User: What shape does this take?
Amino acid sequence: PETYWPVIQRICDDNEILSVADEVVTGFGRLGEWFGSTTYEIKPDLIAFAKGVTSGYLPLGGVLVNDKVADTIIAKGGEFTHGFTYSGHPVSCAVAIANIKILAEDKVIDQVKNHTAPYLAKRWQSLIDHPIVGEARARGLVAALEICKDKNTGTRFAAEQNVGSLCRDLAIENGLVLRAVGDTMIIAPPLIITHEQIDELITKAISTLDATAAAVQRI
Assistant: This one.
């Protein structure tokens, strides 16, 4: 529910518990905001990030901390030492700076929030009509399908049938990248995806689901 994360935030605040947000996937525009924490109206004390900071062109990750955490570390330890052998690699950092500049100047994240994400959510929801789809959900430019044997009861396929992996393989054959987590099928398309490409994605998803349903009957 929409109230879940704000309640978690309140519990952490009331009990002086540090909150840590894993934004490796959701950071830098994936949900239509610079960070998913903004989408869910929370203010974490630490944010772990990677992937989107360079759009995947070079590896880079990091941890953001708020003043409360930084001041405590400095007061207790004298300095904020946080590093590894390849920390702050200049080439990766240069790519990150260039990437962030493009995201900001070209208003890529605004485009996600106001145009492509709402369109994807609308088109993705249409997949709920498929006989083997028990649930279709989307937030920003990440979406998932729950593959079910009986969509009315939510009954799953037997684990040994590996229907999720089967669906993933059929999707790849069909020119569509779907990630299988059990029988949950996930997409995370590029932030610059167009409406036309979303239409193509949905068409290929339907074909993949049809092929999966047919293949399951032969197992």
Helices lie at 4-14, 36-39, 67-77, 90-105, 108-125, 163-173, 195-218. Strands lie at 20-22, 46-49, 62-65, 133-139, 142-147, 179-181, 184-187.
